[in-house]
């Protein structure tokens, strides 16, 4: 054991450094709603809630199930959540290091800024693990298992990560070996949800809901054109080189669809960055030379911002983690208005998870009413559920709907639900950025 540690001492030090930087970078970043939703899903599982029955989400279940289990074991608060997700991100770096040690520093510089805790950290790891397993011609059953776990983490990406397997159509035994673990793992998941009487909900939210998600959130803008040009470049590269890795680089670009925003596109090109760093060693060397500037300046800037920010938030879930002034003022306004009495209060706003987690309120199926996150025809079904709320229920919405004509920042909030509430129920007050309605 000691001999192994000594032999890999430099690598261990390097990855320890990477891990610390990933944790620090994400801990000092301003909190965002994607992080709250991913943490909320995992916390729900840790609290014993059943996915798709007790709370809704559009992703498949592996990430919140795994992270929720680890939260249950290690501690259910956001610091532990950061620790777990920093490890997920580190796994990707280890695989890239095994693929090509020479590019690890420049790759880390890019990847660091896209390691926000969430299911994407796992899906990126699975993509690189598949590249590694293919390159080293590893066991097909293992490759099939990784494809299945990718599917169970984010179904749309998992399906596309399975496409390079079609390269082996002339070797049906190879394909069958990959299909077997996919079938077995998915049957286990189906059996779990069947036994919990929530199989229909799983299918509805995680698969049928994708139809509403793509239709309701489709953004077509300048980034769409950029993504198309990147796809054309990758296809041309593959035609020239026949490099099997490029098939995974290509299919991972689906990550940008359908939102086509900066965040999803930067995630989609992570495997492409890996490929380009290998292809252009001079660029790789220049970035390596100036790596301290690229890494340390952003992190020091975040730490300074954290030190100067006011106020900080401190409760059992968000220990030592500050919230931005905007969110703190929202929470203060809610506390001043409701005085801690939240029985029969429903938040139909994008920040519902953030507010309820900070106020230590239970999560329900009403707390993620975003387009595409409520199953097939979900907006109409949610309106029916609102109709069934008992009389006297309090509904909290925005004072003004957060609509925008900017396709780069298109809101996922439901205008249909907002309009239904404002047109059918009576307003009983307004404060801060909220308007209060009562079901009578």
Uncertain regions: pLDDT < 50 for 5+ in a row?
A: 405-409
Helix content: 55-70%
Give me the side-by-side strand order of the main sheet: 1-2-4-3
- How large is the share of residues in beta strands? under 5%
Number of strands: 4
Q: What is the tally of helical segments?
A: 21
Mean pLDDT: 91
Polypeptide structure, described:
- The protein is mainly alpha-helical.
- It has 2 domains: 11-297, no CATH class; 325-438.
- It contains 21 helices and 4 strands.
- Strands 1-2-4-3 form a 4-stranded mixed beta sheet, covered by helices on one side.
- Helix 5 (78-99) packs parallel to helix 7 (119-135).
List keywords for this structure.
globular, 4% strand, 21 helices, 4-stranded mixed beta sheet, 4 strands, 440 residues, mainly alpha
Write the layout of secondary structure elements.
Layout: H1 2-7, H2 9-28, H3 33-46, H4 62-74, H5 78-99, H6 104-112, H7 119-135, H8 140-153, H9 155-161, H10 172-195, H11 199-217, H12 222-241, H13 245-251, H14 262-268, H15 270-279, H16 281-289, H17 291-308, H18 325-338, E1 345-347, H19 352-358, H20 378-387, E2 394-398, H21 415-424, E3 426-431, E4 434-438
Parallel strand pairs: 1-2
Antiparallel strand pairs: 2-4, 3-4
Helix pairs in contact: 2-5, 2-17, 3-4, 4-5, 5-7, 6-15, 7-8, 8-9, 8-10, 12-13, 13-15
